[in-house]
Structure formats: structure tokens, C-alpha cells
Specification:
single chain; 612 residues; alpha/beta; Glutamine Phosphoribosylpyrophosphate, subunit 1, domain 1; Rossmann fold; 3 domains; seven-stranded antiparallel sheet; 18 helices; 23% strand; globular
Amino acid sequence: MCGIVGYVGPKKAEPILINGLLRLEYRGYDSAGIATMEKTGIKNVKNKGRVNDLLSMKEIESLEGTLGIAHTRWATHGKPSSINSHPHMDNSNSFAVVHNGIIENYAELKKELEDKGYKFLSETDTEVIPNYIHYFYKNSTETGETKFLSAVNKTCKLLKGSFALEILCNDFPNSMIVVRKDSPLVIGTSETENYVSSDIPAILSFTKNFYLLNDLEFAYLTRDAVTFYDNNLNKIEKSVTSIEWSAAAAEKDGYADFMLKEIYEQPRSIRETIGSHIVTNGTCQFDGLNLSKEYLKSINKIFIIACGTAMHAGLASKTVLEQICEISTEVDVASEFRYRTPLVNDKTLCIFISQSGETADTIAALKLAKQKGAKTIAISNVIGSSITREADYTVYTHAGPEIAVASTKAYTAQIMLLDILALYFAEILGINLDKVELMKKELLEIPAKTEKCLALANEVKEFANKVYKEKDIFFLGRGLDYSSSLEASLKLKEISYIHSDAYAAGELKHGPIALIENGITVVGLLTVPHLVEKTVSNLQEVISRGAKTLIVTNQDLGDKDFDKVIRIPEASEYVSPLLSIIPMQLFAYFISKEKGLDVDKPRNLAKSVTVE
């Protein structure tokens, strides 16, 4: 979850590093730090709090070096504090390290170093890294940059867990080493300077050309060169990937918050996702996804595996995959999947969804599925991310950078992509082609209908402003409306800090109705025609107990006693989740704003969950 930035070039490093850290704030963090190579050696400045708190420190003003590393920390080992902040240095102050990830065997390594005479200042797992690098460096007979590389390499071979590292050494004032394993790290490059970051948008304003590191690949950076090595320090060649996102895409463009901007970008992101996969002749297309009719006929199950919002996108598409493709589909939480001995084999197709492509639990589940012989497909929004390099096949959502921690446009793009993928499978299988054509027509209408949903913002805001002080809000739905209710409830939790729960409406009398009391708010989603009558009955039960009701629907409900009805455009139940969620995103947003909260950076959360 931490953010990493690095720079080597002819310019003063500090403002470039700070700029990068500010662009990584959406990842979530509790402290920040920077180390630059000065004439007298490495100078390290760090503190608890925000990047702006770091900027206010007098020591920052004295940093003149043109080589540096920087970090925002999300606490895992040790409380948020100045001493636990990164960068960390060894006992001799010869090496500085920033680290994203978790070192699982740090206690064992710390004891070994303490037995060798090393002292520790922090509570972190990271501090073992610079000290072990120092130990190997001090005891090496090698010379030059090989000595530096070898000490880093030997240290990495001791580490169990995940890490993305940037390392400075006083003896090499014009270079740094970076390496990754199971944590994101990219290198941006140009003729006279090189950049490092845990995320592309942080350095996209400086370059569009990137090297993408694989696990246990080392890079030795100077201002005009990047040299790559494998885990045995053999030189390797890597090609540059050009990223076509504009730097402006990571700015607010006049919106009050990134989240609001991204909510309003959904018509475009959905349209671009459609345009990438439904071609001019009307057929579905996924370049590089070479799944034959024989293979699809041979599988007996599809697993969709993800976390949080991405998992909810899977739930929203499960019905389409089952009813259009006629393949049993199961949706699983990635952190549970890998620990329950799942029944996966070569007759299973596993689809993994991760907006960032760096979600640790999802990547671990993917590796397990591959070990069991399943074919794997990654769905991500980030080109070259870890999950895309692990999977057999990758398809992209084309949502563009999503900066706000609470996902909105990535969610709807994921649903759209999964729906088109289901149609693609059905076309290969040659089944339900009439349904496929009808659903294609509906999907092509979704961007325009999404714009109509956004036009309901004032209605949603009016109701949100009436209930923003409440402590509990409940969501009800049946079928696909239940999956949408889960995402609606999650959005509200994430950014408003109001306790909320989503229930399958039929479960109301099996316990949850005990929580309904006078004045409480219940939100009902009703877009599945054959389930409307039963869901309305459940809502009447909460009304009779004094609940206020907000209804999102595209059905004719007759003259019912609801407090507020938000009418979204008509659509089949298969595609309605793409529409019903938009008023719910706005509902959460307006409640959070009325409470005066930071909607883009909610407390305790991070955009990219890179630790388990």
C-alpha cells in the first residue's frame, strides 16, 4: 500500500520526488520521507503525517541533490511515527532504503543481525534490509558496482515475503539500485534522467516510456542508463513500454474531488471499454485471448476471484455468464479462495479481477490456480501490472487512471468487460446467439443511459442531505439487485464511515429485521422484473416499522408509500447493475461531502492493497 518514488538526473531531485509522492497520496499512508544524495553523503528527512507536513520541515529546504528516493508509508509493523517512517538506514548511515511490502521473516533476520552487533531504531520489518546490505557489503571482496549489486542481491535472497526496494549507497553518489518481488515497481526513462515509482501516474508527467520489472529483476540506474540483471546478476535486456495515458487524466479537471470526476467519467470509460471489444461488424473481440470452442466446451466451471469492489463486479456478471454461456460460475473472495483448498483443475477457467493489478491476495490466488492446472485470465486497468504478467491471458478495462481510493469507474468498466466476455464465449460456443445480439444492443445503449443516471444527481443529493447524520443505513435487493446492494453498501462504508449492511431482501425476516426501528433509512434496489413484487413486500415490512425508504428502480411500482423514488432508465436485468449503482455512488459521495470528509482519501484505506 506504500508509495515509492525515485529520481536520478541533472535536476534537483526534491521537488520531483515530492510531486510524485503527492500523486501517490490516493494509495493511503500515515507518514512520508525523502533521502537525497548530497555532497556530504545521504541526507534523510522523514516524519509522521502528510506529504505537506514533510514539506514544512526546515531540513527539506537544504536538499540540493540530483539523486533521491522517497516514500509514503501505510503502517504494518510499528505504529505511525517519525522513527518508523521510511527511508531507513543502516547503522553506519552508508545505505538508505525505501520498501513497499512485508518481510515475513524479519524477526529471524533481526535476531541474526543483533547477534552480529547491529542495533535497531525502529519497530519496522524494513530496517533489516539496509543493515544486511551493509553486512554483505562490508564483508565482500568484490569491487565497484558489482560489490553494491552483490550485497543487495544476497540480502534479497534472505527475504521472505514481498518487497519493492530502492537503495542508495554513499560510495555510489550517482546511482541507485531497485528490485521488486510481488510488489509493484516501474521505471520511467528518458535520455538524461530516470524515474522510479510504485505507480505509473506518479511519474507520467515526466515520461511516457517505462520499463516493467518482473519479480527478482534488479535495475542499476544512473542518469543516462538503466542496466538490468536477473536474480543471479546476469545482465538481461528489457524493452520499453509506451504508456499513452495523459498526465491530465490524473488531475481533477475542475471537479471538487477525484471521486466525483471519476463518477462522471463513467460514460466515457464504459464507451471505450465497449469500443475496444465490440468491433464495427458487431462481433466481440479480445485480441490475444485464444480460447477455442473445444476448450470452452471442456470446462465445467468458471471461477471469478477478486477482492472488494472487483469481487462485486464479478457477482454482477455471474448471472450473465451462467445464462448466456451455460457454464456454472462461482464468485469467490481472493483471500478466502487460496486457503480453502478450492476444487480447481484443468477443467476450470479462473478469471481474476484487480483494478491496480497489484492486489496481493488476488495475485496469490492466481498463482495457486495455475499450480492446479487452470487457465487464468486477468482483468486489470493497469498495463504491465503484476497480475497481467502472471496470468495466461489479460484483458484491460480502458477506464484510465482512477485516483480516488473508492472505486467507481473501474467497477462499471469491469462489469461491462465481463458482460462482453460472456457474449464472446457464447459466440465461440455458438449458443444463445439471439440473446447475445439482444444484449449487445443493450450494452451499446449503456453509455447514454449512464449519462441519464448522472443527471439524477440533484435528486440523490436532496435525499442524502436529509440522512447524512444517521449511524446505520441498510440496503435490500434480490438477484442482481442484491449484488448491486453489496457494492452500494461498501461505497457508503468506505467514504462516509456510516455503518451499513446489504441483505438479500428475502433474508430480512431471518434476522436483519430486528435492526429496523423508527427513523432508520433503508435503500431498496428494484430492477429485476420477476422479483419486484416480493422485494416491495419486504420494503413494506420495514416501512411498517418506521423506516425511511429510498428506492432506485426502472420498474412500475404503482402507488407505494416510499419516501423517495429515483427512476433510472429501463434496461434488462442483465445490464441494470451498470445503471443502478450510479445513484448509489452519488449517494455515498454526497453524504460524505455533507459530513465534511475527505472523499478521495478515506481513513485507513489504500487504493492498491499490496499486502495480505
